Amino acid sequence: MENLVAITGTIQRVQPMGEDCCQQMITVQNTEGVHNFIISPETYVIDMVRLRSGMQVSAFYDANRPVPLIYPPQYQAVIVGRNVPNEKIYVGYFDENLTATDEQLKLNISRGTEIITANGQQYLCPIGQHTLIVYYTMTTRSIPPQTTPRKIIVMC
Questions:
Q1: Is the distance from CB of 147 to CB of 105 less than 8 angstroms?
Q2: Residue 129 to residue 94: CA distance in whole angstroms
Q3: What tens-digit pLDDT sequence spans the chain (156 residues)?
Q4: Entry pTM
Q5: Do residues 83 and 48 make contact, with C-beta atoms less than 8 angstroms apart?
Q6: CA–CA gap between residue 75 and residue 59 (Å, rounded)
Q7: CA separation for the pair 108, 137 (Å, rounded)
Q8: Is the CA virtual torsion 127, 128, 133, 137 positive or negative?
Q9: By the 8 A CB rule, do 147 and 138 touch?
């Protein structure tokens, strides 16, 4: 999960794929265009929300996986999360100093930061050296930008 790319937008359509209905395709639209995401049983949908038209989401796909050369682009979703107004979602691997490996974000943990596992359980160990899903609002203008997140999901 080191090479995840996010696309944020509004779900325009949710439709089943195939005859067994275990996969769905969501169509996400943003200012850059239309993007299709395959939601498979392996896709982690944060908080297990039911995806539906009109919902604001961030969908993450692995940039190292092949993508068919079709329009609109069709990606295999790795993680999908519902967006809260004025909040961003970042997914990445963080070192022991809580700096993302791509240096796009550094975390400052507060008492108010909720830290849980992917199945919703409280996480009491050090969060460095894990892939984290981070919910935050503002960052500093430093390099890397720093934030005090509202919520962190540790991907064990």
A1: yes
A2: 5
A3: 668 999 999 999 999 998 888 999 999 999 999 999 999 999 999 999 999 999 999 999 999 998 888 989 999 999 999 999 999 999 999 999 999 999 999 999 999 999 999 999 999 999 999 999 999 999 999 999 999 999 999 999
A4: 0.91
A5: no
A6: 9
A7: 13
A8: positive
A9: yes
Q: How many CA atoms lie within 13 A of 135 on its CB side?
A: 20
CB 60 within 8 A of CB 91: yes
- The residue behind tokens 């996986």 is 65
Query: How many angstroms separate the first and last alpha carbons of the chain?
Result: 12
Residue type, 32: E
| SS3 sequence of the chain | CCCEEEEEEEEEEEEEECCCCCEEEEEEEECCEEEEEEECCCCEEHHHCCCCCCCEEEEEEECCCCCCCCCCCEEEEEEEEECCCCCEEEEEEECCCCEECCCCCEECCCCCCEEEECCCCECCCCCCCEEEEEEECCCCCCCCCEECCCEEEEEC
| In the block, residue with structure tokens 């550094």 | 106
